[in-house]
Write a structure and sequence with these properties.
Layout lengths: L3 E9 L3 H12 L4 E4 L16 E5 H9 L11 E3 L1 E6 L10 E5 L12 E5 H12 L5 E4 L4 E6 L2 E6 L4 E9 L6 H5 L4 E17 L6 E7 L2 E8 L8 E9 H8 L3 H12 L6 E17 L3 E2 L2 E3 L5 E2 L7 H21 L7 H29 L4 H15 L2 H12 L5
Parallel strand pairs: 1-2, 1-11, 2-8, 5-13, 11-18
Antiparallel strand pairs: 3-7, 4-7, 5-6, 9-10, 10-11, 12-15, 12-16, 13-14, 14-15, 16-19, 17-18
């Protein structure tokens, strides 16, 4: 017979959300198992690969409490200013813009809107920390099959043990097999867009300022990163275009590709050059009709995914993990059941409004800005200028960007 092990919680998916949640639970004595289909070490990428996460100030707390923040091998790059502008490629940009300064967010606000963390650096921290925690067992690469009942869940790992647990957490991403097996329907929001992700070195300092430049084809963002070897001044680029145009641009050689970035970025950072690889991702959004089923709960992209226009997708997942971890830890400390329906329903009540609000906001922003209609353009430019002149509303937007509101 296969070996059997017991755990309070079993998490399927060891990405940033699932891995951070596993570490957070294990640090508080919650017996946790985490499973991933892919081998984890290759995800570390031995060299800089051009990808990074924007970690909002409100999400940093989870990484700190999970013991991951101090394990990052490179220091995160703070974002202390954000400049939002409206433009038309090849024509003068509007002179109306919105400028966010973290010092205006309130006396109790953190010292940055967020931090840019290399994807590779977070993976290194996760791999090291997950394997060091005595209350956490890691199985990767591993295939698993789950059985759920009101009494509990059993996860059968191919060629490994069977895991008896009280709660199964799906952190597998947009195509979550566990969500599909549970018959939880989703509403999908397709966009005829794709996102290009890369990093550029530049000759002038970014002064920890992020740029969000709205163009008719989609948003173009430059996000300040910490220096790396060979690049004392470095930024991440997140660039959305129509799906076909994005594929053509992505296929360009480095020199013409860099010129296309420069056309959108402007010359405020001086000459630029590519660093690391470039990546192409389809843009889509979805929302699960419910976040739980018998002994099962969804977190991160398994529950919701949004347009990248605001850079908040991962932060919503980390906020899911923060809320769910607190409920699980409190239940176990009180001698309760972390998989009881009332707890899972409470998690859904905590997180669903925040996630739906961000889904609606990002969808509306994309529809508002991904057009070059002169009338709409005039209205949105006036709106940008108005918000810049209304400190209370501007402060509300800043605190939302920091992740201080909601779950």
């Amino acid at each position: 017979m296969a070996e059997r092990i017991s755990a309070d919680v079993c998490i399927v998916g060891a990405g940033p959300v699932g891995g951070s949640l596993a570490c957070r639970l294990a640090t508080e004595g919650v017996a946790t198992v985490i499973i991933d289909r892919a081998p984890l070490p290759p995800m570390e990428h031995p060299a800089f690969d051009g990808r990074a996460y924007a970690i909002a100030a409100g999400s940093r707390g989870l990484l700190e409490a999970a013991g991951l923040w101090d394990r990052l091998p490179e220091p995160p790059g703070p974002i202390r200013d954000i400049r939002v502008s409206d433009g038309r490629l090849g024509r003068p940009a509007s002179r109306l813009y919105l400028h966010f300064d973290y010092e205006q967010a309130g006396s109790d606000a953190p010292d940055a809107f967020g931090w840019m963390v290399e994807a590779r650096a977070l993976r290194v921290a996760l791999n090291a920390h997950m394997h060091s925690l005595p209350g956490l067992r890691v199985f990767a690469p591993a295939q698993a099959r789950a059985e759920r009942s009101r009494a509990g869940a059993v996860v059968h790992i191919t060629g490994g043990p069977a895991v008896d647990c009280r709660l199964l957490i799906a952190a597998e991403g947009k195509q979550s097999p566990l969500r599909k097996q549970a018959g939880i329907p989703v509403t999908q929001f397709p966009y005829d867009q794709a996102g290009i992700v890369c990093a550029v070195a530049h000759e002038r300092a970014h002064h920890q300022t992020a740029l969000e430049h709205f163009l008719p084809a989609g948003p173009f963002a430059q996000l300040p990163m910490s220096a790396t070897e060979g690049a004392p001044d470095l930024s991440a680029i997140v660039w959305t275009e129509g799906r076909q145009a994005a594929s053509r641009l992505f296929a360009l050689d480095d020199v013409p590709f860099t010129k296309q970035i420069a056309r959108r970025l402007g010359d405020h950072l001086g000459a630029i050059r590519l660093m690391g690889r470039r990546w192409l991702y389809p843009v889509s959004a979805l929302h699960a009709h419910r976040y739980f089923d018998t002994r099962l709960v969804l977190v991160g992209d398994a529950a919701h995914a949004i347009h990248p226009i605001a850079g908040q997708g991962l932060n919503l997942g980390l906020r899911d993990a923060t809320a769910l971890a607190r409920l699980i830890i409190e239940a176990i400390w009180a001698g309760g059941d972390p998989g009881e329906p009332a707890l899972l329903a409470q998690y859904q009540r905590l997180r669903r409004p925040d996630n739906l609000l961000m889904l609606a906001a990002t969808d509306a922003l994309d529809r508002l800005f991904s057009t070059d209609n002169p009338a709409i353009r005039a209205i949105r430019d006036l709106g940008i200028a108005a918000v810049d002149r209304m400190p209370p509303l501007k402060q509300l937007f800043m605190r939302q960007a920091m992740g201080n509101l909601g779950g």
